[in-house]
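#data-curation
PF: Archiving a pair of folding outputs for the training set. Convention for this channel: one message per protein, sequence first, structure tokens after, nothing in between. First:
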Amino acid sequence: MRSNATTVEAYLAELLPERRSALETVRGVILANMDPALEEGIQYAMIGYYVPHRVYPAGYHCDPRQPLPFAGLASRKNYMTLSLFCLYAHGDDGNELVRWFRDAWEGTGRNLDMGKACVRFKRISDVPLDVVAEAFRRVRASEFIAMYEASRRERSR
């Protein structure tokens, strides 16, 4: 289910009550714990958390008109997603932050359904909110930009 919403409020208003409540809960945790340099808005048809052009003028290499994506929150047909690009920028699954995230999530006894950087969940009880909060506290915008640029240099070799 792809949204055409242009605001976070409109995006949430389109959802069924259970999905809206779940995403609002995760959103509240993100907003309370993210670096103040980040902004929230609609990006790539989901709720996006990104490094705005005022902080990182170059924007996203795939589309420099877009701010640099940091994380995303979305409702899909069969599940909801928390996309953590801030983990992906750290490199492969062997990096310290990704290991910490996987261990912390699984240490709560909850199943982690994760692709490269996308965590899928069906209900809010599947999400250890303290782990999500800590993940956002651990990655500052300036650190993310440095990792992103290093990753881009590495890939261009």
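PF: Second:
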Amino acid sequence: MPFSGYPDFASIHIAYCPGERVVELKSLKLYINSYRDRYISHEESVNQILDDFVTASEPLEVTVKGDFSPRGNVHTVIEVHSRPSDSQKNT
């Protein structure tokens, strides 16, 4: 639900190359559904999903894409990427 209070709908696409852990689909669905009653922007929600996914599974690479339903004739697609293993090599 965005700041306006009106509900938004989106398809969330997650593509990842797993490290040593994988994410159970049921847990992922319950997590995504927890966003139903949150007042959060499209951009913030997709970035938060990415951050939480990286923390939970430590993937080698991950892309999260939120494809949001049109609102006021504006169709929003937010896509974010992470390669945690690359950032660890640089430290």
